[in-house]
Each structure stands twice: as structure tokens, then as C-alpha cells.
Amino acid sequence: IKELGYGAFSGSSKNSLHQYGFYFSSLERVELSKSLSKIEDWAFDYCRKLNYIDIPDNIIEIGECAFFYCDALESIEIPDSVSKIGKNAFSSCSGITSLSFEAGSNCTQLGDGAFYQTTGITNSVVLPDSITQIGGACFYESGITGVKLPANLQKLGVEAFYKSEISGTLTIPKTLKEIPYQAFAFAKITTLNFETDGINGTKTILESAFCYSRNMTNINFPSTLTDIKNLAFTSCSMLSDISLPNSLTNIEEGAFSGCTRINITHWPANLTTVERLAFKNCNNLRTLPDTTSL
Q1: 73-102 pLDDT, tens per residue?
Q2: φ and ψ at 200, to 5 degrees?
Q3: Rounded to an integer, what distance in angstroms lies between the CA atom of residue 208 and that of residue 9?
Q4: Distance CA 248, CA 239 (A)
Q5: Bridge pairing between strands 109-110 and 133-134
Q6: Listed residue (119, 69, 74) closest to 100, CA to CA
Q7: Would you state the pLDDT for residue 22?
Q8: What are phi and psi of 76, to 5 degrees?
């Protein structure tokens, strides 16, 4: 078999209008043919008894919602042949406890919501360096306990790791120019590092990117950073001594509001804008910026 079309084995008469391959099937175990190159969109969605899937190393694409709500699945290893994982491919697969990518992976793209609400995952995930795009809400409310971001990551979607269980140290690769809206909001990160070679590195941290990351104590900002947007670090209440890079020119409204323990050990000489409420309720500040540049 080289292709499974829509509705090929749709499982329940009451859902017979659905055109999807094994929709609502009572399948428990699947071993796919080595002649198959793609798992089509919606192929196994709502197969809620499916607890095992062997993805062969000839698969190059896992389609949109391919395993949506297969909440009995227990473990997933993505073979090195897969280049793309589609939108919501494993969304709401809350039974998955382990996620891994085979060494030498060729994967370049994780679609929006690909691992949305995979709340059962208990391991730290190493994402292949081949990945350049991670979609919005990709690991939204996922149970992953840590993540190594790809060295070549260029685009990260909004809310990509929103309310995930990521803890410990997070390192942002120098290829990622912008941290989007609520990308790591409510995460359990303790240390935030940014890679840079002095030329390449993150330039902008957007609205609420790390808000309510209440375990974060330390940030090592890159020398490329120019803008920290509204509420980017609001209520990161464990932040203490941090140094702001000289490249930083703009701190927007509420950026560090509610960071009650924060103290700025170095203010940028080129800082031009500190908007209203940027440091509201930051009662531990012991120094202030040179206002002649503002």
C-alpha cells in the first residue's frame, strides 16, 4: 500500500459522514507498510484505543491531525526520514509519556499545535537542529520537562510553549531573531540564556513572551537585543540581579512589572525609551537609568 485515502476504514456508522481514513476506529495497534511515504491528514484521528504506532523510516510527512485525540498512544519516536509534521498531528494525545526524534533527523518543520496538550509527556525533548520552524501552540500545555531548541531555528510561533512544564535552563539559538507573543508564558524556566556571536542573535522579545515564569531567577541577554515589548517579563517574581545589554534601546509598558525582586546591575548607555509602568512594583531596584538619554 502506497496511499491511504480519506474514509478508507472510517470506523463508526454514526460518523459515516466523516471522510477520514480510520476516524473513530477501534484500532489498538498499527504497523505501517514500508512502501508508505506519507501519513495523510486525519488518517487516525479519534482512534482513542490506539496505543501503539510504528512509524517506518520511509515516512517523509505526517499530515494534519493525523493522530488527533489518539489519547491512548504511549510513546512516539519520529524517524529520521520525516521532514514535516503537520498541524495538530499529535494534538490532544495526552497519553504519550515519551517523545523523541531519531538521530540524524531531516525534520524541518513542526506545524501549529503539532503536540498541543500532550500533557502526559514526562521527558526533556531534544529537537533536531534541522528544524527551522516551530508552529504556534506547538507544545501548548505540553508536559515536556525541558527542551533543546534547534541550532538553526528561524521562526517560532505564538504560544509555542505556553504553559508547558519546561524547567531548568532554556537557551535561545542565535538564529532566532524574535521571541513571539507568550511563547514561553507560565513556563518553569530558572535560567534564560541567549546565544550570540555579536552580530547574530535575538533582537526583539515580543509581548508577554515570558510572562508569569515565576521560577526564573537569571537572564543572560544577548548583545544584539534592541527591544523588550509590553509585559514581556511581567510577574517573573524570582528575577534578581540582571544586566541589560548596551544594544537595548526600548523597554515598553509593563515589561518587568511585578518583578518584585529584580535589580538592574547595568543600564544601557543607549537606552532611549522606558515606557509607563515598565518597572511597576519593582521595589528592589537599587539603581536607575541615566535619564539624559531618555
Answers
A1: 999 999 999 999 999 999 999 999 999 999
A2: -95, 140
A3: 44
A4: 19
A5: parallel
A6: 74
A7: 64
A8: -130, 125
C-beta separation of 48 from 22 below 8 A = no
> In whole angstroms, what is the distance from residue 77 CA to residue 63 CA?
16
CA distance 20 to 120: 26
Bridge partners of residue 241, in order along the sequence: 263
Give one DSSP letter per residue of the chain, joined into a string.
Answer: -----TTTT---GGGTT---TTTT----EEE--TT--EE-TTTTTT-TT--EEE--TT--EE-TTTTTT-TT--EEEE-TT--EE-TTTTTT-TT--EEEE-TT----EE-TTTTTT-TT--SEEE--TT--EE-TTTTTT----EEE--TT--EE-TTTTTT---EEEEEE-TT--EE-TTTTTT-EEEEEEE---SSSS--EE-TTTTTT-TT--EEE--TT--EE-TTTTTT-TT--EEE--TT--EE-TTTTTT-TT-EEEE--TT--EE-TTTTTT-TT------GGG-
Is the pLDDT at 229 greater than 90, yes or no?
A: yes
This prediction's pTM: 0.92
CA-to-CA distance for 51 and 56, rounded, in angstroms?
A: 16
Of 140, 75, 153, nearest to 113 by C-alpha is 140
